[in-house]
Amino acid sequence: MGDRAENIARAIAALRQRGVRVTQESSLYETEPLEIRDQPWFLNCAIAAETEFSPERLMEVLLEIEREMGRERLVLRGPRLIDMDILLYGSDIVRGSGLEIPHPRMAERKFVLVPLAEIAEEVNHPVAMMTIAEMLAATADRSEVRKWPGGNTTNARQAF
Fold first, then answer.
1. DSSP 104
2. Annotated catalytic, 83?
3. How many domains is the chain partitioned into structurally?
4. Does residue 130 form part of some domain?
5. Which of 8, 79, 124, 134 sits a CA distance of 20 to 30 A from 158?
6. DSSP character for 108?
């Protein structure tokens, strides 16, 4: 899947080029695959951003960036070049047109909660009525999530 950190840095740069203001970035985390175990570990991070886009338009932008970067959806939950999701959109709840915010499975995914807690531990989940830190403490997911020794996207971004 190429240079995972560079892929993330390129995706974040593409967001900025489209006018999305990235205000925080978590560290990068290596995370073990959950459903399909026989594949390389993933590299994940979370960002906080400000945008004028509606949630639906923001999701369209994320999918455009994935396509432009060469993502092909060949195997569900399998290896992928990049995967961008909207976890929260302020305190809004969005249901419909194939978009669900807050992300419906985030409470079950340590690979989401660990980086998100790094930058937003006191943010409240508008459905669960818990902070991200509380959700992380309560998750049943015991998969391994470890800080990536290569640094963060700032370090990766300096490579190109």
1. T
2. yes
3. 1
4. no
5. 79
6. G
Tens of pLDDT, residue by residue over 38-86, are 667 889 999 999 999 999 999 999 999 988 988 665 655 555 678 899 9
Instruction: Render pLDDT for 74-108 as a digit per residue (tens, 0 to 9).
Output: 655 555 678 899 999 999 999 987 899 999 999 99
Active site residue: 3, 18, 83, 157, which one?
83
Residue-wise over 12-28: b if at least 16 C-beta within 10 A, else e?
Answer: bebbeeeebeeeebbbb
Q: Residue 83 sits in which domain range?
A: 4-103+143-157
**38 is a catalytic site residue:** no
The active-site residue, picked from 18, 80, 141, 157, is 80
Query: Which one of 67, 85, 92, 146 is the catalytic residue?
Result: 85
Q: Is 92 a catalytic residue?
A: no
The pLDDT of residue 152 is above 80:
no
Rounded to whole angstroms, the Cα distance separating 155 from 62 reads: 22
158 band by pLDDT with thresholds 50, 70 and 90: very low
